[in-house]
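A.,

Following up on our hallway conversation. Structure tokens first:
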């Protein structure tokens, strides 16, 4: 697989925030080609190029993993879906749990064992999630960006409700877009208070100034 970086840190976002994981950031993102709205605030622009990073053999990766949980992220990791599925199978046999973070535009390969935890973060303007990966989602992460913030609370609630309905039963995390700083985070918090079935996700790694 073509990989931009591999590092150990704490999961900074969502339900598993604070838990140590080995992060594997894959090269390539389909966001720019699809015209996703996240390209204007993406915090991993360095992962976009499909030819970025370098090729890693699976054995090399397996030797590098020392923690009980691995987070496969990107870019959009399902652009290399077969390699990710091979890695999941290899890590499961070593009792390592794999978390996958995807924008939801691509499906998980049919018939392959799924990761232990799938986080789908649907992106504007359509927020569509491919059916197969929606069925695997344990967590839906919705970015509370300036456009959502500009909506009335009713319209924003309706939009989030429509987004998360694609993955029934998944935990819902509302995450303020980082460039909005503390003011946007406070408004996102107020939004979540009105929806006790959701939770606020802050990017703990950015607050701590770690990777
Ligand atoms: S899908 Fe993710 S990596 Fe790609 S542009 Fe959007 S936020 Fe960035």
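Then the amino acids I'd put at each of the 211 positions:
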């Amino acid at each position: 697989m073509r990989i931009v970086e591999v590092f150990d840190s704490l999961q900074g976002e969502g339900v598993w925030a604070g838990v140590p994981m080995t992060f594997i950031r894959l090269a390539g993102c389909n966001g720019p080609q699809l015209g996703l709205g996240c390209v204007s605030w993406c915090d991993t622009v360095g992962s976009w190029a499909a030819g970025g990073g370098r090729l890693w053999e699976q054995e090399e990766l397996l030797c590098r993993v020392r923690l009980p949980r691995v987070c496969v992220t990107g870019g959009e990791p399902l652009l290399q879906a077969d390699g990710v599925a091979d890695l999941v199978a290899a890590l499961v046999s070593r009792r390592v749990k794999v978390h996958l973070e995807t924008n939801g535009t691509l499906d998980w390969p049919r018939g392959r064992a799924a990761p232990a935890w799938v986080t789908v973060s649907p992106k504007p303007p359509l927020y569509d999630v491919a059916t197969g990966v929606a069925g695997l989602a344990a967590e839906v992460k919705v970015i509370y960006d300036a456009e959502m913030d500009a909506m009335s609370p009713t319209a924003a609630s309706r939009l989030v409700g429509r987004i998360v309905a694609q993955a029934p039963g998944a935990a819902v995390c509302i995450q303020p877009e980082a460039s909005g700083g503390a003011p946007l985070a406070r408004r996102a918090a107020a939004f979540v208070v009105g929806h006790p079935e959701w939770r606020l996700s802050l990017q703990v790694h950015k607050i701590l100034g770690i990777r």
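The pocket of iron/sulfur cluster is lined by residues 29, 31, 36, 38-39, 42, 44, 47, 74-76, 103, 123 (CB under 6 Å). Curious whether your intuition agrees with the design.

B.
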